[in-house]
């Protein structure tokens, strides 16, 4: 329905984000990091890069996608998202190219 009006709908679902200066429980960051594939938590710039890609020309034919920005492995990520009530952030963006 939206595609016929050249509107793409995608979502970015961030996982655990390391926010400098934000207080956290002792050991919580280390607990998350120990379960990541990349050995670190995401930072806000990691999420911003995905949003930038989704809204740019390179993603002009991407629609209906959810990109998870997280290196937390498997079910542990899903369990934490459910517990924290975290959900994807939806994006509506006009298509940049028309047929």
Overall description:
The longest helix is centred in the middle third of the chain and has 12 residues, at 44-55. It is built from 3 helices and 3 strands. The two termini are 16 Å apart. The chain has a 3-stranded mixed sheet with strand order 2-1-3, covered by helices on one side. It has one domain (3-94): NAD(P)-binding Rossmann-like Domain (Rossmann fold). The relative contact order is 0.31. It is of the alpha+beta class and 99 residues long. Residues 77-99 are annotated as: Disordered. Pfam families: adh_short_C2.
Task: Summarize the entry for a quick read.
This protein has a single domain, classed as 3-Layer(aba) Sandwich (Rossmann fold).
Please bin the fraction of helical residues: 25-40%
The number of helical elements comes to 3
Kindly report the name of the CATH homologous superfamily.
Answer: NAD(P)-binding Rossmann-like Domain
Topology-level CATH name: Rossmann fold
Organism: Pararhodobacter zhoushanensis
InterPro entries: NAD(P)-bd_dom_sf (IPR036291), SDR_fam (IPR002347)
Pfam families: adh_short_C2
Protein name: SDR family oxidoreductase
Keywords:
single chain, 99 residues, alpha+beta, Rossmann fold, three-stranded mixed β-sheet, 18% strand, elongated
Question: What secondary-structure arrangement, pairings included, does this model have?
Answer:
Elements: E1 7-14, H1 28-33, H2 44-55, E2 66-69, H3 74-84, E3 89-94
Parallel strand pairs: 1-2
Antiparallel strand pairs: 1-3
């Amino acid at each position: 329905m939206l595609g016929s009006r050249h509107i793409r709908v995608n979502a970015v679902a961030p996982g655990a984000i390391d926010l400098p200066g934000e207080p956290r429980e002792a050991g919580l960051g280390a607990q998350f990091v120990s379960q990541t594939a990349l050995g670190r938590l995401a930072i806000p710039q990691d999420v911003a890069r995905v949003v930038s890609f989704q809204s740019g020309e390179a993603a002009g034919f991407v629609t209906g996608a959810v990109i998870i920005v997280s290196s937390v492995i498997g079910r542990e990520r899903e369990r934490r998202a459910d517990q924290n009530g975290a959900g994807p952030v939806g994006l509506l963006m006009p298509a940049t190219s028309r047929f």
